[in-house]
Specification:
This protein is of the alpha/beta class and about 500 residues long. It contains 13 helices and 23 strands. The chain has helices at about 135-145, 170-180, 200-205, 230-245, 275-285, 305-310, 315-330, 345-350, 355-360, 395-400, 430-435, 455-470, 475-480; strands at about 5, 15, 25-30, 30-35, 45, 55-60, 60-65, 75, 80, 105-110, 120, 125-130, 155, 185-195, 215-220, 250, 255-260, 290-295, 370-375, 385, 405-410, 425-430, 445. It has a 7-stranded parallel beta sheet, sandwiched between helices.
Protein backbone atom coordinates (compact mmCIF):
# COMPACT_ATOMS: atom_id res chain seq x y z
CA UNK A 1 0.00 0.00 0.00
CA UNK A 2 1.26 3.48 -0.85
CA UNK A 3 2.33 5.62 2.10
CA UNK A 4 0.95 9.04 1.12
CA UNK A 5 -1.99 10.50 -0.78
CA UNK A 6 -1.95 13.92 -2.44
CA UNK A 7 -5.63 14.61 -3.02
CA UNK A 8 -5.42 17.27 -5.78
CA UNK A 9 -2.52 18.66 -7.85
CA UNK A 10 -2.86 22.06 -6.12
CA UNK A 11 -2.24 20.67 -2.61
CA UNK A 12 0.93 21.50 -0.70
CA UNK A 13 0.25 18.78 1.89
CA UNK A 14 -0.46 15.06 1.54
CA UNK A 15 -2.22 12.61 3.87
CA UNK A 16 -0.27 9.78 5.51
CA UNK A 17 -1.98 6.46 4.82
CA UNK A 18 0.06 4.79 7.56
CA UNK A 19 2.19 6.09 10.42
CA UNK A 20 5.41 7.58 9.04
CA UNK A 21 8.63 7.62 11.03
CA UNK A 22 11.11 10.50 10.99
CA UNK A 23 13.94 9.85 8.54
CA UNK A 24 12.14 7.44 6.22
CA UNK A 25 11.72 8.29 2.55
CA UNK A 26 8.28 8.10 0.93
CA UNK A 27 7.14 8.60 -2.63
CA UNK A 28 4.37 11.08 -3.52
CA UNK A 29 3.31 11.09 -7.18
CA UNK A 30 6.70 9.83 -8.32
CA UNK A 31 8.78 12.21 -6.19
CA UNK A 32 10.79 11.14 -3.13
CA UNK A 33 10.27 13.03 0.11
CA UNK A 34 12.08 12.49 3.41
CA UNK A 35 9.89 12.56 6.52
CA UNK A 36 11.41 15.12 8.91
CA UNK A 37 9.06 14.52 11.88
CA UNK A 38 6.82 11.54 12.66
CA UNK A 39 3.39 11.75 11.02
CA UNK A 40 0.49 9.64 12.38
CA UNK A 41 -1.81 7.86 9.94
CA UNK A 42 -4.52 10.19 8.63
CA UNK A 43 -2.46 13.31 9.37
CA UNK A 44 -0.88 15.77 6.93
CA UNK A 45 2.75 16.22 5.84
CA UNK A 46 4.22 19.22 4.05
CA UNK A 47 5.27 18.40 0.48
CA UNK A 48 7.53 21.45 0.25
CA UNK A 49 8.71 24.21 2.58
CA UNK A 50 5.79 26.42 3.68
CA UNK A 51 6.51 29.91 5.02
CA UNK A 52 4.82 31.43 8.06
CA UNK A 53 1.56 33.06 6.94
CA UNK A 54 1.35 30.99 3.75
CA UNK A 55 -1.91 29.29 2.89
CA UNK A 56 -2.04 25.52 3.34
CA UNK A 57 -3.96 23.73 0.58
CA UNK A 58 -5.81 20.39 0.85
CA UNK A 59 -8.64 19.14 -1.40
CA UNK A 60 -7.51 21.98 -3.70
CA UNK A 61 -8.79 24.61 -1.23
CA UNK A 62 -7.32 26.55 1.72
CA UNK A 63 -7.64 24.81 5.09
CA UNK A 64 -5.77 27.53 7.06
CA UNK A 65 -2.39 29.20 7.18
CA UNK A 66 0.98 28.33 8.65
CA UNK A 67 1.66 29.74 12.15
CA UNK A 68 5.40 29.40 11.54
CA UNK A 69 7.83 28.16 8.91
CA UNK A 70 7.17 24.50 8.12
CA UNK A 71 9.86 22.26 6.63
CA UNK A 72 9.32 19.82 3.79
CA UNK A 73 8.38 16.44 5.28
CA UNK A 74 7.12 17.98 8.54
CA UNK A 75 3.89 17.03 10.30
CA UNK A 76 1.26 19.73 9.61
CA UNK A 77 -1.38 19.98 12.33
CA UNK A 78 -2.81 22.24 15.04
CA UNK A 79 0.65 23.09 16.39
CA UNK A 80 1.69 24.90 13.21
CA UNK A 81 -1.60 25.60 11.38
CA UNK A 82 -4.57 27.82 12.25
CA UNK A 83 -7.93 28.63 10.69
CA UNK A 84 -8.64 31.45 8.26
CA UNK A 85 -12.36 31.54 9.14
CA UNK A 86 -14.10 34.68 10.34
CA UNK A 87 -17.68 35.90 10.84
CA UNK A 88 -20.50 36.54 8.38
CA UNK A 89 -19.44 37.03 4.77
CA UNK A 90 -20.82 38.31 1.49
CA UNK A 91 -20.97 35.81 -1.36
CA UNK A 92 -21.36 35.79 -5.13
CA UNK A 93 -23.05 33.05 -7.15
CA UNK A 94 -20.88 31.30 -9.74
CA UNK A 95 -23.10 28.45 -11.02
CA UNK A 96 -21.22 25.19 -11.52
CA UNK A 97 -23.92 22.58 -10.97
CA UNK A 98 -23.48 19.27 -12.74
CA UNK A 99 -26.54 17.52 -14.14
CA UNK A 100 -26.62 13.78 -13.65
CA UNK A 101 -27.66 11.38 -16.39
CA UNK A 102 -30.73 9.23 -15.61
CA UNK A 103 -29.83 5.71 -14.59
CA UNK A 104 -31.44 2.30 -14.93
CA UNK A 105 -34.43 2.19 -12.59
CA UNK A 106 -33.85 0.17 -9.42
CA UNK A 107 -36.34 -0.84 -6.79
CA UNK A 108 -36.78 -2.33 -3.32
CA UNK A 109 -39.68 -3.87 -1.37
CA UNK A 110 -41.18 -1.11 0.78
CA UNK A 111 -44.41 0.00 2.41
CA UNK A 112 -46.62 2.27 0.32
CA UNK A 113 -48.57 4.76 2.43
CA UNK A 114 -51.93 6.33 1.59
CA UNK A 115 -50.36 9.78 1.19
CA UNK A 116 -48.01 8.52 -1.53
CA UNK A 117 -44.89 8.24 0.64
CA UNK A 118 -42.95 5.00 1.08
CA UNK A 119 -41.66 3.48 4.31
CA UNK A 120 -38.67 1.18 4.63
CA UNK A 121 -39.92 -0.07 8.01
CA UNK A 122 -43.40 -0.78 9.40
CA UNK A 123 -42.95 0.18 13.03
CA UNK A 124 -45.32 1.25 15.78
CA UNK A 125 -44.05 4.45 17.39
CA UNK A 126 -44.86 6.10 20.71
CA UNK A 127 -44.12 9.84 20.69
CA UNK A 128 -44.39 11.67 24.04
CA UNK A 129 -45.20 15.37 23.67
CA UNK A 130 -43.41 16.24 26.92
CA UNK A 131 -40.63 14.78 29.03
CA UNK A 132 -43.03 14.27 31.96
CA UNK A 133 -44.58 11.22 30.26
CA UNK A 134 -41.33 9.68 29.04
CA UNK A 135 -41.52 7.02 31.76
CA UNK A 136 -45.04 6.11 30.67
CA UNK A 137 -43.92 5.92 27.04
CA UNK A 138 -41.12 3.52 27.99
CA UNK A 139 -43.48 1.40 30.08
CA UNK A 140 -45.87 1.16 27.13
CA UNK A 141 -42.96 0.29 24.84
CA UNK A 142 -42.02 -2.63 27.09
CA UNK A 143 -45.58 -3.98 27.31
CA UNK A 144 -46.25 -3.48 23.60
CA UNK A 145 -43.41 -5.79 22.55
CA UNK A 146 -46.09 -8.48 22.65
CA UNK A 147 -47.65 -6.79 19.61
CA UNK A 148 -44.59 -7.30 17.39
CA UNK A 149 -45.16 -9.69 14.49
CA UNK A 150 -47.65 -10.16 11.69
CA UNK A 151 -46.85 -6.88 9.96
CA UNK A 152 -45.67 -4.96 13.04
CA UNK A 153 -41.88 -4.99 12.69
CA UNK A 154 -41.03 -3.22 15.96
CA UNK A 155 -42.38 -0.95 18.70
CA UNK A 156 -40.31 2.06 19.77
CA UNK A 157 -40.82 4.95 22.18
CA UNK A 158 -38.83 8.08 21.32
CA UNK A 159 -38.39 10.01 24.55
CA UNK A 160 -37.01 13.54 25.04
CA UNK A 161 -36.93 16.12 27.88
CA UNK A 162 -38.83 18.91 26.10
CA UNK A 163 -42.42 19.98 25.35
CA UNK A 164 -42.87 22.37 28.26
CA UNK A 165 -41.05 25.35 29.82
CA UNK A 166 -39.91 26.34 26.34
CA UNK A 167 -40.18 29.60 24.45
CA UNK A 168 -39.85 30.91 20.89
CA UNK A 169 -37.97 28.76 18.41
CA UNK A 170 -37.35 25.98 20.93
CA UNK A 171 -41.06 25.46 21.46
CA UNK A 172 -41.78 25.57 17.73
CA UNK A 173 -38.91 23.18 16.99
CA UNK A 174 -40.33 20.62 19.44
CA UNK A 175 -43.80 20.87 17.94
CA UNK A 176 -42.59 20.68 14.34
CA UNK A 177 -40.26 17.72 14.88
CA UNK A 178 -42.89 15.71 16.77
CA UNK A 179 -45.48 16.41 14.05
CA UNK A 180 -42.94 15.43 11.37
CA UNK A 181 -42.12 12.14 13.10
CA UNK A 182 -45.79 11.35 13.71
CA UNK A 183 -46.24 11.40 9.92
CA UNK A 184 -43.02 9.58 9.05
CA UNK A 185 -43.47 6.82 6.44
CA UNK A 186 -41.39 4.33 8.48
CA UNK A 187 -44.15 4.37 11.11
CA UNK A 188 -47.12 2.22 10.19
CA UNK A 189 -48.83 3.54 13.30
CA UNK A 190 -48.21 6.19 15.96
CA UNK A 191 -49.45 6.96 19.46
CA UNK A 192 -48.91 10.64 20.34
CA UNK A 193 -48.78 10.60 24.12
CA UNK A 194 -49.43 13.83 26.04
CA UNK A 195 -49.72 14.82 29.70
CA UNK A 196 -52.39 17.51 29.41
CA UNK A 197 -50.92 20.69 30.90
CA UNK A 198 -47.82 21.15 28.70
CA UNK A 199 -47.21 23.95 26.19
CA UNK A 200 -46.74 21.53 23.32
CA UNK A 201 -49.69 19.25 23.99
CA UNK A 202 -51.37 16.85 21.61
CA UNK A 203 -53.59 19.53 20.06
CA UNK A 204 -50.56 21.67 19.21
CA UNK A 205 -48.98 18.67 17.50
CA UNK A 206 -52.22 17.75 15.73
CA UNK A 207 -52.50 21.28 14.27
CA UNK A 208 -49.22 20.75 12.42
CA UNK A 209 -50.36 17.51 10.79
CA UNK A 210 -52.40 17.09 7.61
CA UNK A 211 -54.64 14.29 6.36
CA UNK A 212 -54.42 12.29 9.60
CA UNK A 213 -55.42 8.64 9.30
CA UNK A 214 -57.27 8.36 12.63
CA UNK A 215 -56.92 4.57 12.59
CA UNK A 216 -53.14 4.76 12.36
CA UNK A 217 -52.32 7.94 14.28
CA UNK A 218 -53.97 8.17 17.70
CA UNK A 219 -53.68 10.64 20.56
CA UNK A 220 -53.81 10.08 24.33
CA UNK A 221 -53.82 12.72 27.10
CA UNK A 222 -52.79 10.97 30.31
CA UNK A 223 -54.50 13.42 32.67
CA UNK A 224 -57.83 12.68 31.01
CA UNK A 225 -57.93 8.92 31.68
CA UNK A 226 -57.98 6.87 34.86
CA UNK A 227 -55.26 4.37 33.85
CA UNK A 228 -52.96 5.64 31.12
CA UNK A 229 -51.13 2.30 30.76
CA UNK A 230 -54.34 0.33 30.28
CA UNK A 231 -55.78 2.90 27.88
CA UNK A 232 -52.48 3.24 26.05
CA UNK A 233 -52.23 -0.50 25.50
CA UNK A 234 -55.80 -0.60 24.19
CA UNK A 235 -54.93 2.09 21.65
CA UNK A 236 -51.63 0.45 20.65
CA UNK A 237 -53.37 -2.89 20.21
CA UNK A 238 -55.96 -1.29 17.94
CA UNK A 239 -53.27 0.41 15.84
CA UNK A 240 -51.30 -2.84 15.61
CA UNK A 241 -54.37 -4.61 14.25
CA UNK A 242 -54.56 -2.01 11.47
CA UNK A 243 -50.93 -2.76 10.64
CA UNK A 244 -51.29 -6.54 10.50
CA UNK A 245 -52.18 -6.62 6.82
CA UNK A 246 -49.34 -4.33 5.71
CA UNK A 247 -46.97 -6.01 3.27
CA UNK A 248 -43.92 -4.92 1.31
CA UNK A 249 -44.45 -4.23 -2.38
CA UNK A 250 -41.99 -3.16 -5.11
CA UNK A 251 -41.13 0.54 -4.83
CA UNK A 252 -38.79 2.58 -7.05
CA UNK A 253 -35.50 3.91 -5.68
CA UNK A 254 -36.84 7.36 -6.58
CA UNK A 255 -39.08 7.12 -3.49
CA UNK A 256 -36.04 7.08 -1.19
CA UNK A 257 -34.91 10.08 0.85
CA UNK A 258 -31.52 9.45 2.47
CA UNK A 259 -29.88 11.67 5.08
CA UNK A 260 -26.11 12.29 4.92
CA UNK A 261 -24.18 12.77 8.17
CA UNK A 262 -20.69 12.23 9.56
CA UNK A 263 -19.25 12.12 13.05
CA UNK A 264 -16.09 11.04 14.82
CA UNK A 265 -14.32 11.93 11.58
CA UNK A 266 -10.62 11.33 10.98
CA UNK A 267 -8.07 12.22 8.33
CA UNK A 268 -9.39 9.43 6.09
CA UNK A 269 -13.08 10.45 6.22
CA UNK A 270 -12.70 13.06 3.48
CA UNK A 271 -10.81 10.72 1.13
CA UNK A 272 -12.70 7.44 1.63
CA UNK A 273 -16.10 7.34 3.36
CA UNK A 274 -17.40 10.77 2.41
CA UNK A 275 -16.50 10.60 -1.31
CA UNK A 276 -18.05 7.11 -1.46
CA UNK A 277 -21.24 8.51 0.10
CA UNK A 278 -21.06 11.36 -2.42
CA UNK A 279 -20.92 8.81 -5.22
CA UNK A 280 -23.95 7.05 -3.72
CA UNK A 281 -25.80 10.39 -3.49
CA UNK A 282 -25.25 11.01 -7.19
CA UNK A 283 -26.42 7.47 -8.02
CA UNK A 284 -29.62 7.87 -6.00
CA UNK A 285 -30.36 11.31 -7.44
CA UNK A 286 -29.84 9.92 -10.95
CA UNK A 287 -32.56 7.42 -10.03
CA UNK A 288 -34.87 10.34 -9.18
CA UNK A 289 -34.38 10.01 -5.42
CA UNK A 290 -33.33 12.56 -2.81
CA UNK A 291 -30.51 13.13 -0.35
CA UNK A 292 -30.24 15.65 2.48
CA UNK A 293 -26.94 17.14 3.69
CA UNK A 294 -26.89 18.82 7.10
CA UNK A 295 -24.60 19.92 10.00
CA UNK A 296 -24.23 23.54 8.91
CA UNK A 297 -21.22 24.45 11.14
CA UNK A 298 -19.28 21.76 9.30
CA UNK A 299 -19.94 23.51 6.01
CA UNK A 300 -18.04 26.61 7.18
CA UNK A 301 -14.99 26.92 4.96
CA UNK A 302 -16.52 24.86 2.15
CA UNK A 303 -19.80 26.72 1.74
CA UNK A 304 -18.87 28.38 -1.57
CA UNK A 305 -18.57 24.93 -3.19
CA UNK A 306 -22.20 24.24 -2.26
CA UNK A 307 -23.32 27.75 -3.20
CA UNK A 308 -21.87 27.47 -6.69
CA UNK A 309 -23.81 24.22 -7.17
CA UNK A 310 -27.16 25.87 -6.36
CA UNK A 311 -29.52 25.36 -9.29
CA UNK A 312 -31.16 28.78 -9.01
CA UNK A 313 -30.24 32.16 -7.60
CA UNK A 314 -33.09 31.83 -5.11
CA UNK A 315 -31.54 28.62 -3.78
CA UNK A 316 -28.16 30.37 -3.65
CA UNK A 317 -29.64 33.16 -1.51
CA UNK A 318 -31.24 30.58 0.80
CA UNK A 319 -27.84 28.89 1.16
CA UNK A 320 -26.18 32.21 2.03
CA UNK A 321 -28.82 32.73 4.74
CA UNK A 322 -28.33 29.15 5.95
CA UNK A 323 -24.61 29.80 6.52
CA UNK A 324 -24.75 33.35 7.88
CA UNK A 325 -27.75 32.67 10.13
CA UNK A 326 -25.84 29.84 11.78
CA UNK A 327 -22.77 32.03 12.20
CA UNK A 328 -25.03 34.64 13.80
CA UNK A 329 -26.32 31.97 16.19
CA UNK A 330 -22.74 31.39 17.35
CA UNK A 331 -22.08 35.12 17.73
CA UNK A 332 -25.32 35.80 19.62
CA UNK A 333 -24.28 33.18 22.14
CA UNK A 334 -20.78 34.72 22.42
CA UNK A 335 -19.11 31.62 21.00
CA UNK A 336 -16.23 31.34 18.55
CA UNK A 337 -17.50 30.33 15.11
CA UNK A 338 -14.52 28.11 14.42
CA UNK A 339 -14.53 26.25 17.78
CA UNK A 340 -14.33 22.96 15.94
CA UNK A 341 -12.99 20.27 15.19
CA UNK A 342 -13.45 18.06 18.26
CA UNK A 343 -10.59 16.42 20.20
CA UNK A 344 -11.36 13.13 18.43
CA UNK A 345 -11.21 14.84 15.02
CA UNK A 346 -7.83 16.35 15.88
CA UNK A 347 -6.47 13.04 17.09
CA UNK A 348 -7.55 11.56 13.75
CA UNK A 349 -5.69 14.21 11.72
CA UNK A 350 -8.21 17.03 11.13
CA UNK A 351 -6.63 20.37 12.01
CA UNK A 352 -9.14 23.15 11.27
CA UNK A 353 -12.81 23.59 10.54
CA UNK A 354 -11.99 24.22 6.86
CA UNK A 355 -10.15 20.88 6.80
CA UNK A 356 -13.19 19.20 8.35
CA UNK A 357 -15.73 21.01 6.15
CA UNK A 358 -13.99 20.22 2.87
CA UNK A 359 -14.03 16.55 3.85
CA UNK A 360 -17.59 16.71 5.17
CA UNK A 361 -19.09 18.21 2.01
CA UNK A 362 -17.68 15.35 -0.07
CA UNK A 363 -20.83 13.48 1.03
CA UNK A 364 -22.92 15.67 -1.30
CA UNK A 365 -21.32 14.36 -4.49
CA UNK A 366 -21.61 16.61 -7.55
CA UNK A 367 -25.38 17.03 -8.05
CA UNK A 368 -26.91 20.51 -8.07
CA UNK A 369 -28.40 21.84 -4.83
CA UNK A 370 -32.17 21.86 -5.35
CA UNK A 371 -33.48 23.30 -2.08
CA UNK A 372 -32.59 24.52 1.41
CA UNK A 373 -34.68 23.42 4.39
CA UNK A 374 -35.27 25.13 7.70
CA UNK A 375 -34.94 23.03 10.85
CA UNK A 376 -38.13 20.97 11.21
CA UNK A 377 -39.09 21.44 7.55
CA UNK A 378 -39.83 18.40 5.40
CA UNK A 379 -38.13 17.87 2.06
CA UNK A 380 -40.41 18.69 -0.87
CA UNK A 381 -38.05 18.80 -3.87
CA UNK A 382 -36.35 15.75 -5.37
CA UNK A 383 -32.57 15.83 -5.54
CA UNK A 384 -29.93 17.26 -3.19
CA UNK A 385 -31.28 19.32 -0.27
CA UNK A 386 -29.41 21.25 2.43
CA UNK A 387 -30.89 21.22 5.95
CA UNK A 388 -30.35 23.66 8.80
CA UNK A 389 -29.18 21.71 11.86
CA UNK A 390 -26.07 21.64 14.08
CA UNK A 391 -23.24 19.15 13.84
CA UNK A 392 -24.24 17.22 16.98
CA UNK A 393 -24.72 13.63 15.83
CA UNK A 394 -28.05 12.76 17.43
CA UNK A 395 -29.63 16.21 16.95
CA UNK A 396 -28.66 16.30 13.27
CA UNK A 397 -29.67 12.69 12.57
CA UNK A 398 -33.07 13.32 14.22
CA UNK A 399 -33.47 16.44 12.07
CA UNK A 400 -32.78 14.35 8.97
CA UNK A 401 -35.48 11.87 10.00
CA UNK A 402 -37.91 14.72 10.70
CA UNK A 403 -37.15 16.10 7.22
CA UNK A 404 -38.36 12.82 5.75
CA UNK A 405 -35.22 10.67 5.47
CA UNK A 406 -36.13 6.99 5.74
CA UNK A 407 -32.44 6.07 6.19
CA UNK A 408 -29.39 8.00 7.46
CA UNK A 409 -25.86 7.27 6.20
CA UNK A 410 -23.34 8.06 8.91
CA UNK A 411 -19.63 8.05 8.08
CA UNK A 412 -17.09 7.80 10.88
CA UNK A 413 -13.37 7.39 11.32
CA UNK A 414 -13.43 6.66 15.04
CA UNK A 415 -16.72 4.82 15.49
CA UNK A 416 -19.98 5.37 17.35
CA UNK A 417 -22.86 3.09 18.41
CA UNK A 418 -25.66 5.67 18.36
CA UNK A 419 -28.87 5.39 16.35
CA UNK A 420 -31.68 7.72 15.31
CA UNK A 421 -35.42 7.25 14.70
CA UNK A 422 -34.61 5.66 11.31
CA UNK A 423 -32.05 3.01 10.25
CA UNK A 424 -28.63 4.63 10.75
CA UNK A 425 -25.94 3.04 8.58
CA UNK A 426 -22.43 3.29 10.07
CA UNK A 427 -19.80 3.66 7.35
CA UNK A 428 -16.15 3.27 8.36
CA UNK A 429 -13.45 5.43 6.78
CA UNK A 430 -10.73 2.90 7.56
CA UNK A 431 -10.40 -0.87 7.71
CA UNK A 432 -8.89 -1.14 11.24
CA UNK A 433 -12.04 0.48 12.67
CA UNK A 434 -14.31 -1.83 10.67
CA UNK A 435 -12.38 -4.88 11.89
CA UNK A 436 -12.27 -3.72 15.52
CA UNK A 437 -15.93 -2.62 15.82
CA UNK A 438 -17.74 -5.29 13.84
CA UNK A 439 -20.77 -4.72 16.09
CA UNK A 440 -20.96 -1.03 15.02
CA UNK A 441 -19.82 -0.77 11.40
CA UNK A 442 -22.23 -1.72 8.61
CA UNK A 443 -20.05 -0.80 5.61
CA UNK A 444 -16.30 -0.31 5.20
CA UNK A 445 -14.76 2.15 2.74
CA UNK A 446 -11.19 1.63 3.97
CA UNK A 447 -10.72 -0.75 1.03
CA UNK A 448 -10.48 2.36 -1.14
CA UNK A 449 -6.95 2.81 0.24
CA UNK A 450 -5.92 -0.70 -0.80
CA UNK A 451 -6.96 -0.54 -4.44
CA UNK A 452 -10.75 -0.72 -4.72
CA UNK A 453 -12.18 1.91 -7.07
CA UNK A 454 -14.52 4.61 -5.81
CA UNK A 455 -17.31 4.07 -8.40
CA UNK A 456 -17.50 0.37 -7.55
CA UNK A 457 -17.59 1.10 -3.82
CA UNK A 458 -20.33 3.71 -4.28
CA UNK A 459 -22.33 1.17 -6.28
CA UNK A 460 -21.82 -1.40 -3.52
CA UNK A 461 -23.13 1.17 -1.02
CA UNK A 462 -26.17 1.70 -3.27
CA UNK A 463 -26.80 -2.05 -3.19
CA UNK A 464 -26.47 -2.02 0.60
CA UNK A 465 -28.92 0.87 1.00
CA UNK A 466 -31.50 -0.85 -1.20
CA UNK A 467 -31.11 -4.02 0.87
CA UNK A 468 -31.65 -2.03 4.07
CA UNK A 469 -34.63 -0.26 2.51
CA UNK A 470 -35.99 -3.72 1.73
CA UNK A 471 -35.81 -4.84 5.36
CA UNK A 472 -32.20 -5.77 6.15
CA UNK A 473 -31.47 -4.55 9.68
CA UNK A 474 -28.48 -2.34 10.41
CA UNK A 475 -26.31 -3.22 13.40
CA UNK A 476 -27.71 -0.51 15.68
CA UNK A 477 -31.21 -1.90 15.03
CA UNK A 478 -30.03 -5.39 15.89
CA UNK A 479 -28.61 -3.99 19.14
CA UNK A 480 -31.94 -2.33 19.95
CA UNK A 481 -30.62 1.24 19.77
CA UNK A 482 -33.21 3.92 18.88
CA UNK A 483 -32.80 7.53 19.99
CA UNK A 484 -33.88 11.07 19.20
CA UNK A 485 -32.82 14.59 20.21
CA UNK A 486 -34.40 17.98 19.50
CA UNK A 487 -32.38 21.15 18.83
CA UNK A 488 -32.47 23.62 21.74
CA UNK A 489 -31.22 27.18 21.34
CA UNK A 490 -32.87 29.34 23.98
CA UNK A 491 -34.28 29.87 27.46
CA UNK A 492 -35.82 27.16 29.66
CA UNK A 493 -38.50 28.59 31.95
Amino acid sequence: MRAMLKITPADNVAVALRTLEAGETVEVEGEACTVSTAVPAGHKMALRPIAAGETIIKYGYPIGEAKCDIRQGEHVHVHNLHTLLSGELSYEWHPKGQRLEPAEVRSFPGYRRKNGSVGVRNELWILPTVGCVSGIAKALERQAQSLVGGGVEAVHAFTHPYGCSQMGDDQEHTRDVLADLAQHPNAGGVLVLGLGCENSGVEEIRKRMANIDERRIRFLVCQQVEDEIETGMEILTAIAEEMRSDVRTPCPASSLVVGLKCGGSDGFSGITANPVIGGFSDLLIAQGGSTILTEVPEMFGAETILMDRCETEETFEKTVSLINDFKRYFEENHQTIYENPSPGNKAGGISTLEDKALGCTQKSGFAPVKDVLAYGERAKVKGLNLLSAPGNDLVAATALAAAGAQIVLFSTGRGTPFASPVPTVKISSNTPLAEKKRNWIDFNTGTLLSGQELPQLSQALMDKVLAIAGGELVLSEKSGYHDMAIFKTGVTL
